[in-house]
């Protein structure tokens, strides 16, 4: 008989287990590494403080994501697969809080956000991304924080989606044949530099011939608010973020939570009051996720404020000016690098992969994505990549402090799903102009309705992915069970 | 054929065989002593160490849905996301969460299938 008197916990309660001393030391080593990078880079040139800002916000994101197990793949998957709304609720909390802080930042004139064009591409990109993230078991940000927990499968996802983006944005040949002639004509009309070879490469024509001709507006702009306060708080935050989030939560409550709540509280039913209590019970069901959502929402809003403040302080509008000022290369032909000024995931990872591919002798800058817009800087000098790496570090620190760090090698099957799903995520991220963070989280919270289109596609994709996976497992189970009976 | 070989979920074979063996052979049943619940006989252990969260959650749900009232299961996983999700999905499977035990390399979750008419036990 096994006796288990100690370290036994109830639902959602962290274990009362002290951190192992060696894990505390490891956590401090990771923390010390990032502190050393921050201080030594500042000693080399004070302008590296811009990089350090990205680094420490990335570190904060990593800690929050790991603490709350914050993952959009989990949010969608758990709803459709097992009817658990915990993560979806946490994400909606983060959306509401991020939108309020973003509105404040916008009113203060410190926002670095630019809305994306509104079009069907967001739905299609989200759909492909959604299918992929269910197969991998983690979204773009989720895979990063799981890498910090020691998951090699998650690292494979990150690598897969990064390299897929590089090959996708540079692919031409027979893929050019799939592009409508109108897009090619529209691309030619953009009068782009010849070095970009804009009509050779499907992604160049997708961007210049289709996406660039779509309108981009925030809800505040669409509603015609001239007052910045009304545009930010009513248009962008209330109408585009808070009301949809409340409605989505209500839908989740009715579909997945209400039945169980009323069954457990049927003796105390008092109509609407009980329903409201149930709604609140759903929101507070997982304190870890709710706290993580709260920290993420506030940190993501402050991130914009800090980056804009630093841009003002350093007299720049893009980190490319810093790089060229310090004598570094890797810029786009516009002397820019990718520098959104807020939480973002996939583009900087694609830049890192592009740098590797370039070092292998391939030209990856004859396209709009790298050549004209984002550049291919050395990963050590890529400010936004500092954020991604620090995110992994922050997650590692949090995992170590909770004795949750474990180096996990995937089986061949899990690795195959990770790579395959990562490829889909890479394709979806490029078509949708971002991932679950850049094309959804950061956009819906800044009043950009295109984020909801990506979210819609991601949800439908997640649903399809879950149904396929469910079918796959049931099929295999049935096969193995019948074989055993024989 | 190679495609099938790669995707063949070896873990499922194990789960399927273990499920049948546990039912057929009473000597395989183990007992566990849980605080507040006393000594319980495990119907079977579901070992998902190394699996991703979706597969862990789906297989757990499939097995718990088919379980008989009163049966106790031990679910072992090192996927933190799945470990946190499983207790929340138990009411939908008409199961109650007895405890989660933190081992150095994994978590063990103990659940019991409820009688369809009974209300969940209030945690103390």
Describe the structure in your own words.
The complex is a heterodimer of chains A (486) and B (124). With 486 residues, chain A is mostly helical. Chain A has one domain (21-478). Chain A has 20 helices and 2 strands. In chain A, α1 packs antiparallel against α17 (383-401), α3 packs antiparallel against α4 and α7 (152-170) crosses α15. Chain A is globular and about 70 Å long. Chain A starts with a strand and ends with a helix. The model of chain A is unreliable at 4-14 (pLDDT under 50). Chain B is α+β, with helices and mostly antiparallel strands and 124 residues long. Chain B has one domain (11-113): TusA-like domain (Translation Initiation Factor IF3), CATH 3.30.110. Chain B is built from 4 helices and 5 strands. A 5-stranded mixed β-sheet of chain B has the order 1-2-3-5-4. In chain B, β4 (95-102) and β5 (107-113) form a beta hairpin. Chain B starts with a helix and ends in an 11-residue tail after the last strand. The relative contact order of chain B is 0.16. The mean pLDDT of chain B is 78. At the A-B interface, β1, β2, α3, α11 and α18 of A face α2, β1, α3, α4 and β4 of B.
Q: Whole-number average pLDDT of chain A?
A: 90
The number of helical segments of chain B is: 4
Helix content percent band of chain A:
55-70%
Oligomer: heterodimer
**Topology, number of strands of chain A:** 2
Mean pLDDT of chain B: 78
Strand residue percentage of chain A: under 5%
Helix/sheet category of chain B: alpha+beta
Helix and strand succession of chain B?
Answer: HHEEHEHEE
Write out the CATH superfamily name of chain B.
Answer: TusA-like domain
> Ranges of chain A with pLDDT <50 over ≥5 residues?
4-14
Largest sheet of chain A: none
């Amino acid at each position: 008989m096994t006796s288990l008197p100690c370290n036994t916990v109830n639902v959602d309660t962290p274990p009362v287990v002290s951190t192992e001393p060696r894990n505390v030391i490891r956590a401090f080593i990771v923390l010390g590494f990032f502190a050393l990078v921050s201080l030594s880079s500042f000693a080399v040139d004070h302008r590296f403080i811009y990089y350090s800002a990205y680094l420490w916000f990335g570190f904060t994101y990593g800690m929050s994501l790991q603490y709350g197990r914050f993952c959009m793949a989990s949010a969608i998957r758990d709803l459709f697969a097992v009817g658990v709304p915990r993560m979806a609720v946490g994400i909606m909390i983060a959306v509401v809080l991020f939108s309020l802080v973003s509105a404040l930042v916008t009113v203060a004139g410190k926002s670095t956000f630019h809305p994306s064009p509104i079009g069907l591409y967001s739905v299609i990109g989200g759909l492909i991304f959604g299918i992929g993230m269910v197969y991998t078991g983690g979204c773009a940000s989720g895979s990063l924080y799981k890498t910090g927990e020691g998951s090699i499968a998650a690292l494979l996802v990150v690598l897969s989606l990064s390299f897929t983006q590089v090959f996708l944005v540079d692919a031409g040949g027979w893929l050019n044949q799939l592009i409508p002639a109108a897009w090619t004509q529209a691309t030619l009309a953009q009068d782009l530099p010849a070095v970009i070879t804009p009509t050779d490469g499907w992604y160049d024509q997708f961007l210049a011939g289709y996406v660039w001709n779509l309108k981009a507006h925030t809800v505040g702009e669409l509603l015609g608010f001239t007052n910045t306060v009304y545009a930010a708080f009513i248009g962008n935050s209330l109408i585009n973020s808070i009301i949809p989030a409340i409605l989505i939560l209500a839908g989740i409550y009715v579909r997945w939570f209400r039945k169980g709540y009323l069954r457990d509280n049927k003796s105390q039913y008092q109509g609407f009051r009980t329903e409201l209590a149930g709604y609140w019970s759903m929101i507070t069901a997982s304190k870890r996720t709710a706290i993580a959502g709260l920290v993420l929402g506030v940190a993501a809003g402050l991130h914009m404020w800090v980056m804009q403040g630093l841009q003002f302080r350093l007299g720049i509008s893009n980190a490319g000016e810093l790089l060229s000022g310090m004598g570094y290369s890797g810029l786009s032909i516009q002397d820019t690098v990718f520098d959104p000024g807020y939480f973002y995931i996939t583009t900087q990872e694609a830049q890192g992969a592009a740098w590797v591919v370039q070092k292998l002798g391939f030209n990856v800058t004859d396209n709009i994505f790298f050549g004209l817009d984002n550049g291919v800087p050395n990963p050590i000098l890529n400010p936004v990549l500092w954020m991604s790496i620090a995110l992994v570090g922050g997650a590692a620190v949090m995992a170590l402090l909770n004795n949750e760090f474990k180096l996990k090698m995937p089986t061949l099957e899990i690795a195959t799903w990770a790579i395959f799903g990562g490829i889909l995520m890479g394709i979806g991220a490029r078509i949708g102009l971002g991932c679950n963070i850049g094309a959804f989280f950061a956009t819906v919270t800044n009043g950009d309705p295109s984020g909801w289109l990506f979210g819609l596609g991601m949800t439908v994709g997640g649903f399809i992915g879950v149904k396929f996976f469910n079918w796959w497992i049931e099929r295999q189970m049935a096969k193995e069970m019948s074989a055993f009976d024989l | 054929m190679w495609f099938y070989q790669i995707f063949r979920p070896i873990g499922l074979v194990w789960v399927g065989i273990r499920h049948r063996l546990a039912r057929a052979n009473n000597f395989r049943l183990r007992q566990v002593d849980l605080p507040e619940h006393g000594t319980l006989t495990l119907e079977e252990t579901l070992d998902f160490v190394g699996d991703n969260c979706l597969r862990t959650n789906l297989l757990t749900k499939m097995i718990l849905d088919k379980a008989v009232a009163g049966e106790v299961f031990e679910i072992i996983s090192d996927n933190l996301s799945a470990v946190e999700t499983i207790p929340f999905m138990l009411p939908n499977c008409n199961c109650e969460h007895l405890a989660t035990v933190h081992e150095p390399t994994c978590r063990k979750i103990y659940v019991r299938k409820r009688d369809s008419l009974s209300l969940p036990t209030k945690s103390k």
